[in-house]
Amino acid sequence: MSISSYRWALLPLCLASTAQAGVLLERVSYPGFVMPSYAISKNCAIYDSGQLIMQYQLDGMNSKRSIPLQLSKAGIKMKIAEAAKGTINSESFPVDVATVIYRAYQKQADNTVQAVLLFEENGGSGEKKTNDSEAAVALRNFIDVNCGN
C-alpha cells in the first residue's frame, strides 16, 4: 500500500466524530493528496462546557490546545435546532483535494446525540454536501470566527 493510499485509509479515523464528550460544534479538515510534510489535519471542537479544543496532526506530530470560551449556549442550541430542519443538498466534488466537514450536535430527549451536517467538501468521496438552512451558515461562520483557519 502506498503512502497516499495509507493516508486515505486513515481518513475516516481522522474524521471520526467527537460528539461523545459534549461537543456542540466542530470543524474537521484533512489535506488531499499531498506530500506527508504538507499533510496538516485539524480538528476544532467547541464544547458545551465552554472549551474550544484545537488538535493538529502533521507527519506523525500532534498537538492540542484548549481555550476557554464564554458561550451563549441557548442561542447556539436554538441555531442547531433550526439547522437540523435544513435540507442537505449534494453534488460532485473533485477527489484527492482537501476535505472539510462542519457539524453541530443536538442532544435528544432520550439523551442520545444527533449529528447535524452543516457543510462538507469531501475530497475522499468526491462529494459536496450543503445544508440549505440559514442557521447552518450562521453556525459555520461562528465556528470559523472561533476556530480560525
Short summary of the structure?
Helices cover 25% and strands 41% of the residues. The chain has 149 residues and is of the alpha+beta class.
Number of helices: 3
Element pattern in H and E: HEEEEHEEEEH
Main sheet properties? 8 strands, antiparallel
- Number of strand elements: 8
SSE-based structural type: alpha+beta
Low-confidence stretches: 1-19
Mean pLDDT: 89
Q: Alpha-carbon distance between the termini?
A: 31 Å
Whole-number radius of gyration?
15 Å
Strand content: 35-45%
Shape: globular
Strand order of the largest sheet: 4-3-2-1-6-7-8-5
Q: Which percent bin holds the helix content?
A: 10-25%
Number of domains: 1
Describe the protein in words.
- By secondary structure, the chain is an alpha+beta fold.
- The protein has one domain (3-147).
- Helices cover 25% and strands 41% of the residues.
- It is built from three helices and eight strands.
- The chain has helices at 3-14, 73-83, 134-147; strands at 23-30, 40-47, 51-58, 61-68, 88-92, 99-107, 113-122, 127-131.
- The chain has an eight-stranded antiparallel β-sheet with strand order 4-3-2-1-6-7-8-5, covered by helices on one side.
- Strand 6 and strand 7 form a beta hairpin.
- Helix 2 (73-83) crosses helix 3 (134-147).
- The longest helix is centred in the C-terminal third of the chain and has 14 residues, at 134-147.
- The N and C termini lie far apart (31 Å).
- Residues 1-19 have low confidence and may be disordered.
